[in-house]
Design goal:
72% of the residues lie in helices and 0% in strands. With 415 residues, it is an all-alpha fold. Helix 3 packs antiparallel against helix 4 and helix 13 runs antiparallel to helix 14 (358-376). The longest helix is centred in the last third of the chain and has 32 residues, at 318-349. The radius of gyration is 21 Å and the shape is globular. It starts with a helix and ends with a helix.
Length: 415
């Protein structure tokens, strides 16, 4: 009995930690770091009491392969100390967190409060973003004014805020279409969507815009009305772009030329071109196993053009950085996680038995959110920041939990 009570208390503490992280994820890195470590400690203690190992999920084989290549990259690393610290302090922590989320959010009763907390946090960030647009001040963290016509709320950069918004917005969209909700709830969520979408435009983050477009097109396969509304909104935005700040109009015009450096000649794009070249050279130097997890910035100066004006940088393309640090093997292992997630997720979504249930909508939102995030990863550093990196594993864990929950319900129903 005492053992069961301890397990139950550990479980409740873990769940509470997840709700705290969901709310403070875009606000305080210190809080999410503290509560993620606390949750992992109680998760390990709970599993010891239960005499259980890592929970089985549809992604286990790919996740374990990715863990293995990151670990073995330490022995081939250009700096074993940096690789060891990165692996044990960051990589292992994130992957433990993924399993923790997938194991803990094991019912709709637990997932619904998480979505409410996510929306409450997004509402605060949205209000902060609009306030910042008009006053050039952020009232949450008092971030310094970057002196650019873009908003970033409590984040350090507009691109980070854009990534967060593109990842959260799909959950507002599916909640509007979820049939069991009262109209007043849907109206509130619709207003939240308008707020967050407005902030997304004002971030002027092309990577986040592309991620949002990809998520909308993905949702359109199951919710065709989403694409129709988006096309109308896109037409209105393009027709009125002359009313926006010139930077927004310019970036709208060059949206699909994001990788064409002959078209994009602004300073940030030219710097990014040099960073990508350095990352590519780094990858070619050790294409099989890479230069060691966490060593991109350590090796950056050795591979970047001498004319580069700044200090060491992330790759601004997360896939390129994974390839440079862990080689083609590490990149394939990471991509296999995504492939399995979408394969099993879409398989569940296409199962008519659970179509249009609450879990079905939230799983669809999780898939669209991860797609938006993955598109943004092509042009920025989101995967390597503490808050946005944790957001990725949080949403991936949520989607994986939903796949497990729905498959378990189906198995029980068949028996």
């Amino acid at each position: 009995m005492e053992k069961d009570k301890l397990i139950n208390r550990c479980d409740k503490i873990i769940l509470f930690c997840l709700y705290v992280i969901a709310y403070f994820l875009p606000i305080s890195k210190g809080i999410i770091e503290l509560f993620s470590i606390l949750a992992i400690i109680f998760f390990i203690f709970k599993k010891i009491l239960q005499r259980q190992g890592i929970p089985f999920t549809s992604l286990n084989s790919a996740v374990f392969a990715y863990i293995a290549i990151c670990f073995f990259s330490i022995f081939f690393s250009s700096n074993p100390r940096i690789s060891s610290l990165t692996f044990f302090r960051k990589t292992l922590q994130n992957l433990f967190f993924f399993f923790l989320v997938a194991d803990t959010l094991n019912s709709e009763r637990r997932i619904k409060p998480f979505i409410y907390v996510l929306f409450a946090s997004a509402l605060l960030l949205g209000v902060d973003g609009i306030y910042q647009h008009f006053t050039r001040k952020d009232f949450i963290r008092n971030r310094i004014d970057l002196l650019i016509p873009r908003i970033y709320a409590s984040f350090y950069t507009p691109n980070d805020f854009g990534c967060y918004l593109a990842t959260v917005i799909p959950f507002t969209i599916v909640s509007i279409f979820e049939k069991s909700r009262p109209r007043i709830f849907k109206l509130i969520i619709f207003l939240l969507f308008i707020l967050l979408f407005s902030c997304l435009i004002l971030t002027v983050s092309r990577g986040a815009w592309l991620g949002f477009i990809a998520s909308v097109l993905f949702l359109g396969f199951w919710l065709p009305a989403v694409v129709i509304v988006f096309l109308i909104a896109a037409f209105l935005l393009l027709a009125t772009k002359s009313l926006f700040h010139p930077l927004i109009g310019e970036r709208m015009s060059n949206l699909f030329n994001l990788f064409d450096m002959d078209v994009l000649t602004d300073g940030s794009s030219l710097d990014r071109k040099m960073i990508w070249r350095a990352g590519w050279r780094m990858f070619l130097f050790s294409p099989l196993v890479g230069l060691g997890v966490g060593t991109f910035m350590y090796n950056f100066k050795k591979f970047v053009d001498a004319s580069y004006r700044y200090g060491p940088s992330y790759a601004h393309n997360c896939y390129l950085q994974i390839a440079a640090e862990t080689g083609i093997i590490g990149l394939l292992c990471f991509l296999s996680i995504l492939v399995l997630f979408f394969f099993y997720g879409i398989k569940v979504i296409n199962n008519k038995t659970y179509a249009k249930t609450y879990s079905w909508y939230i799983l669809l939102g999780s898939l669209a959110a991860i797609l938006a995030y993955c598109v943004h990863m092509f042009v920025d550093t989101s995967f390597y920041s503490l808050d946005l990196g944790m957001l990725f594993w949080f949403i991936l864990g949520l989607g994986t939990a939903l796949i497990r929950n729905i498959n378990s319900s189906q198995s029980e129903a068949q028996t």
